[in-house]
Design goal:
7 strands, Rossmann fold, alpha/beta, single chain, globular, 17% strand
Length: 227
Amino acid sequence: MTGALDDRHVVITGGDGALGQAVVQAFVAAGAVCHLPLVGSVAPQAPAAVRQTANVDLTDEGAVEQYYGGLPPLAASIHLAGGYRAAPIAETSRADLEHMLLLNLATAFLCCREAVKAMRKSGGGRIVNVGARVSEVPIGGAAAYSVSKAAVAALTRSLAIEVKPDGILVNAVLPSIIDTPANRAAMPKADTSRWPKPEELARTILWLASPENRLTSGALIPVYGSQ
């Protein structure tokens, strides 16, 4: 898909994570100009097509409004930012639940909202959220996380219907455990050959966000690997 997004502007949240770096590389290779709102400081020697902004709190409504309000017309907005916390429900506090909802749902909601505002001005665009396999294939021991990702799936489907008349297509990918250094360290005995690779997920996200996707909206795409 080289050149599919030539000089088009794309937001990628969570762009400094393991999945985020693969997604950024895929979009840069497709010709996009990638805008990265970072929680911390910017990385040195970023490519010219990567525009980093430090210290953007995506859980803060005003900060998200300000960030998107300062961007050029957007072709796509990709929402990878989030977090994971697992515990039996008897050991999960209300604060734990609220933390998962804040990191996973609120960040996606706020970025979707501001992306829609921006894309309506420019006549359309693409939004891709990152849900999780657990919203379709439940597991035990991670109720707060599962609820927050199920809410991202509901957000995606609802928003897709609302904004389709505006020429905005909204989809989500649902990964299982991703093959990252952090996950390998946390699960050293796991069969990592069964885990989807960041580069594989990036290709799916790129297609959903590209002009080549003319019809697909409201889809929850399973990207499970062989799990």
